[in-house]
Task: structure prediction
Amino acid sequence: MDPVESGKPLRIAICEDVERELRILKDYIEASGVSVQIDAFANGEAFLKVFTKDAYDIVFLDVYMGEISGVQVAETIRAIDTYVVIVFTTTSDDFTRESYRLNAYKYMIKPIHSEDVYDALELAALKRDRAQGATLSIIADGNPVTIPLTSIEFIESRNRRSVVCLQDNSEYATLTTIDALEKLLPAPRFLRSHRSFIVNLDHVEDVEEDFIMDNGKRAYIRVKDFRKVKRAYDDYVFNSARSE
Result:
């Protein structure tokens, strides 16, 4: 799975009492390409002293820690915040039942793998994006325009302009390049499927040779990247179901 990228830093907490394991996890996160803000805690007690609702987008919890276990920390988290993504890291699968009870997204057995970390980061970014009601601000025909991300079907590069195509079939043309817009739009929800197209995957109706959007329009997929793009779309659909 390709690393997710997003404009605002993803707020991450790590509770891990083994320095080597903490370093490995931080290295994977920092190598993901995600803009992040990481707070590390050596035990659950220190974490719970500062934890508040909406403080973090994702929390990585070692199950076996000090006087308070990761499961006990997760119980307190869920009493305060039902939305934050929880990921357990552990050397044993003894607590898998508790992970389901506490709606933990992943239960990663050490040594952890980078792909699992990237997958968890994608889900956290997706949940945050949907919760924030994010918008895109551009200059169109000399006027500032703010567009809800939910209304964007795709963005197409045409005649040296980027055209933002909306669900109601209206359009806004801007001189901002499609490369620049790609950096402003949160992945994995917005996917660069072609050098001339960025697609809002929430509005994809079907995938043939190209994306068929829910308003009937077609957004191109670069032929040589079709498998990679289709896999990214399938991953997004799967994670979207998990985030609801």
Residues 1-6 have pLDDT under 50 and may be disordered. The domain at 135-243 is CATH 2.40.50.1020 (OB fold (Dihydrolipoamide Acetyltransferase, E2P)). The radius of gyration is 20 Å. The chain has two domains: 10-132, 135-243.
